[in-house]
Automatic annotation (TrEMBL):
The lineage of its organism: Bacteria, Pseudomonadati, Bacteroidota, Cytophagia, Cytophagales. Residues 12-174 form the Non-canonical purine NTP phosphatase/PRRC1 domain. It is an enzyme of class 3 (hydrolase). Its cofactor is Mn(2+); Mg(2+). One of its GO terms (biological process) is thiamine metabolic process. Mg(2+) binds at residue 73. This is Probable inosine/xanthosine triphosphatase. The keyword Transcription regulation does not apply. Binds 1 divalent metal cation per subunit; can use either Mg(2+) or Mn(2+). Belongs to the YjjX NTPase family. InterPro entries: ITPase-like_fam (IPR029001), Non_canon_purine_NTPase (IPR002786), NTPase/PRRC1 (IPR026533), YjjX_NTPase (IPR050299). Phosphatase that hydrolyzes non-canonical purine nucleotides such as XTP and ITP to their respective diphosphate derivatives. Probably excludes non-canonical purines from DNA/RNA precursor pool, thus preventing their incorporation into DNA/RNA and avoiding chromosomal lesions. SUPFAM superfamilies: ITPase-like. It comes from Rufibacter radiotolerans. Keywords: Hydrolase, Magnesium, Manganese, Metal-binding, Nucleotide metabolism, Nucleotide-binding.
Length: 180
């Protein structure tokens, strides 16, 4: 709950990229407020590598629900789930963000981009995207760093900033509650 130290954000992941993205999004949307973010481990209830838009959204929704059950005293719960989906013969990647405060829920999807064929092939064979990136691009734990987007844009856009944009969009119902 709100106290003199700020509003508590529970992020349904211990991945530091996701925790920082949730915190940065809330700080940017509500610059006059103080926030404290904590990442917790909760299951997504979907595959480690969600393979469709709907499965990815369901993972983010599940994470928020489970984080709320585990830590009901928070002001905001945030679930971020990265996934992939087929567009024709190509594989795209993106993330869904779900934010809940009280009974109000905001949802948004990040920008989407196409994976290069060698990465897409490994993912299609069952490898998680982060591991496929690490293998193809000789990285270590890239999903807790710049992610695929950071690698492919050569640092012009990283995973955290991609997620921050989606967090901001998921917060629209909280910024303009009279419309939602």
């Amino acid at each position: 709950m709100t106290d003199n130290q700020g509003k508590k954000i529970v992020v349904a992941s211990t991945n530091p990229v996701k925790v920082r993205a949730a915190l940065a999004g809330l700080q940017r949307m509500f610059p006059g407020q103080e926030f404290l973010a904590e990442g917790i481990s909760v299951p997504s209830g979907v595959a480690d590598q969600p393979m469709s838009d709907q499965e990815t959204l369901q993972g983010a929704l599940n994470r928020v629900q489970r984080a709320r059950e585990k830590q009901p005293e928070a002001d905001f719960w945030v679930g971020l789930e990265g996934g992939v989906d087929r567009v024709g013969s190509d594989l795209t990647t993106f993330a869904w963000v779900v934010v809940q405060a009280g009974e109000k829920i905001g949802k948004a999807r990040s920008g989407t981009f196409f994976l290069p064929p060698p990465v897409a092939q490994l993912v299609a064979e069952g490898m998680e995207l982060g591991h496929a990136n690490d293998q193809i691009f000789s990285q270590v734990n890239s999903k807790q760093k710049g992610g695929a987007v950071g690698i492919l844009t050569q640092g012009m856009l990283d995973r955290q900033e991609l997620y921050v944009q989606a967090v901001l969009l998921a917060l629209v119902p909280f910024k303009s509650p009279e419309l939602y």
